[in-house]
Amino acid sequence: MLEEIVLSKKDLVKLFEEGILKDKEKNWLYEDKEVKIVALHKVEPKFLQDLTNAEYFKIVFIK
Known about the structure:
Elements: E1 4-8, H1 9-17, E2 21-23, E3 28-30, E4 33-40, H2 48-51, E5 56-61
Antiparallel strand pairs: 1-5, 2-3, 3-4, 4-5
């Protein structure tokens, strides 16, 4: 199994739309396996709105 996947914001949204990635109350699931989603920034975000404005994200599988 993969330990992490790096993908664009567009691809992340597509995974949610296709139901591959699901947002549950307390966690995210990728194909029914618990994951963390980490925003990857080119520079350190200075403002709260910058946190969700990342171009790339990393999906990390929780063991």
